[in-house]
Amino acid sequence: GLYGRLGHGDEQNQLQPKKVEAFTSRAVLAVSAGEYHNLALTADGAVWSWGSGIGGMLGHGDGQHQLLPKKIESLAGKRVVAVSAGFAHSLAITADCAVWSWGYGSRGQLGHGDRQDQLEPTKVEALAGQRVIAVAAGWTTSLALTADGGVWSWGAGEGGTLGHGDGHDQRLREKLGALSA
Known about the structure:
Elements: E1 28-33, E2 37-42, E3 47-51, E4 66-71, E5 80-85, E6 89-94, E7 99-103, E8 118-123, E9 132-137, E10 141-146, E11 151-155, E12 170-176
Antiparallel strand pairs: 1-2, 2-3, 3-4, 5-6, 6-7, 7-8, 9-10, 10-11, 11-12
C-alpha cells in the first residue's frame, strides 16, 4: 500500500493477508491502523510504526516514510501497554498510566494545549495524576478512559464529537462525567 503502510518493504497492494516478516520472531500484543500509518505493540513494551511519516505521525523525529516497521526509539525504556493510531496522530499509554501523543496537532488532538505537530512521542502533562487505562485516537479527536470511569476528550469538536454539549475544539482535555450504564 501507499507509503509502505502494509509493512512489507514496498508500496504494493496485497489482495490477500500476508505476514509482516518484521514480527516473525516477536510477540505482537496489539496493532492499530491509522489512515496512512500503523502501530504495533510488542510483548517487551516496545512500539513499532510504519507507513507515512508526514507530520511526525510515526514518532521517529522526522517526516520520513517507513516501508518496514521501525521501533520508536524515544519510547525505549518506557513500557508501553496500549496504542491507538488516528488519522494522522497517535496515542500510547505507558505502564505508569501516562499518555503520550505524537503526529499532527492542528486541531489540538495531541492534548498539549496548542496546535503544534509533534515529531516524537510527548507526554500529555494535562493528564498527569490520572490513571489512564485506555486511549482512542480518531480523525482529529482523542479520548482517554481512567480507572475511576472518567472519560476525557480533546481535539476537534464540530458536531459535538467531544461530548461537551457544544461544537468547540478543545486544545486541552476536559473531563466528561463518568458514564452511567
